[in-house]
């Protein structure tokens, strides 16, 4: 089966995000006065061929801990979606 | 090898300068170490794993593996890095300059993490450094309250430490250099990238692994506008001469650091 892992990596709340602040400033200058905070992060879409959802979650978590996120400054969130074609599931 | 009983003038330090795909300061480093400092230096491709010929490893500046994802994030998995880790655990000296510092941080050999500069811009300029710790082989030859002038050139050099880790590093003398003004005073204007506590360079608990964002190899000759970078390399030579033995035999904990 084929799974799609959607991985969001965000700076921890304690870490300053000058990129988010710059975007916040730009939005305000565009008259979006209602915006009070912007945090910029990274987003990955990773396709995996593993037998089940639990394995997909486990592998994606492993990838985050080893490479995709730096635990000193970043948190991550994983969503798994089944993207097998009908042929795969027969 | 460092000669037994050598004086500072005679000491021969064997440097290994690690080359990752995308490193770009390795030749400057070899030039300074050999032509200016008169030591031995060899380039070490990142797929090599035998580091037994060296006393001190230099991880040079550049963009190792393109700095994709985060600076140093992919370089830490280069085959050589497991050997670098063992080399350091055995007491060998490891110096990370700019990108090399970023690699050591990503590899977990030094604490903290690197963020984009607070200005979001690449910063290329001279900075002043206050030397906060003389208890490392890289700074032992400097004098108390030394102020060095070195260049920086980086985009991802805002060094982050959470408050408890900063306090811990301060308590253990691991904050080695901080950005300051020319009089040695810490000031926000003198901090080029928004680093926590104006920290420009730190060492590990044993003191034998040192990383800094400024480039000592770019200011070791008058022609280049400054020579303060020499002081770092002279410290290594003096430290090696005083030991009068292979550096790799050093104790796991730096005897200069009070326990």
Write the layout of secondary structure elements.
The complex is a heterodimer of chains A (90) and B (259).
Chain A (H helix, E strand, L loop, with lengths): L1 E10 L6 H12 L11 E9 L3 H16 L5 E9 L3 H4 L1
Antiparallel strand pairs in A: 1-2, 1-3
Chain B lengths: L13 E6 L6 H11 L3 E6 L10 E4 L19 H11 L3 E5 L1 H8 L6 E3 L7 E9 L15 E8 L3 E3 L2 H9 L3 E6 L18 E5 L5 E4 L16 H15 L16
What fraction, in percent, of the residue positions of chain B are helical?
10-25%
CATH class of chain A equals Alpha Beta
Q: What is the rounded distance between the termini of chain B? A: 29 Å
Distance between the termini of chain A: 10 Å
So what's the oligomer here? Answer: heterodimer
Strand order across the largest sheet of chain B: 2-1-3-4-11-10-9-6-7
Order of helices and strands of chain B: EHEEHEHEEEEHEEEH
CATH architectural arrangement of chain B: 3-Layer(aba) Sandwich
Q: Give the count of structural domains of chain A.
A: 1
Give the biggest sheet of chain A: 3 strands, antiparallel
Overall average residue pLDDT of chain A: 95
**Count of all domains of chain B:** 1
Classify the fold: give the CATH topology of chain A.
Answer: Mth169, Chain: A
Name of the top-level CATH class of chain B: Alpha Beta
Please work out how many helical segments of chain A DSSP would assign: 3
Largest sheet entry of chain B: 9 strands, mixed
Number of strands of chain A: 3
Q: What characteristic shape of chain B results from the CA principal axes? A: globular
Looking at this protein, list some descriptive labels.
heterodimer, A: 90 residues, alpha+beta, Mth169, Chain: A, 3 helices, B: 259 residues, alpha/beta, Rossmann fold, nine-stranded mixed β-sheet, two-stranded antiparallel sheet
Structure commentary:
The complex is a heterodimer of chains A (90) and B (259). By secondary structure, chain A is an alpha+beta fold. Chain A has a single domain (2-82), classed as Mth169, Chain: A. Chain A has helices at residues 18-29, 53-68, 86-89; strands spanning 2-11, 41-49, 74-82. Chain A has a three-stranded antiparallel beta sheet, with helices on one face. Chain B is an alpha/beta fold and 259 residues long. Chain B has a single domain, classed as Class I glutamine amidotransferase (GATase) domain (Rossmann fold), CATH 3.40.50. In chain B, the strands form two sheets. A nine-stranded mixed beta sheet of chain B has the order 2-1-3-4-11-10-9-6-7, sandwiched between helices. In chain B, strands 5-8 form a two-stranded antiparallel ribbon. In chain B, helix 1 links the parallel strand 1 (14-19) and strand 2. Mean pLDDT of chain B is 91; it is low at 1-8 and 245-259. The chains are: A alpha+beta (90), B alpha/beta (259).
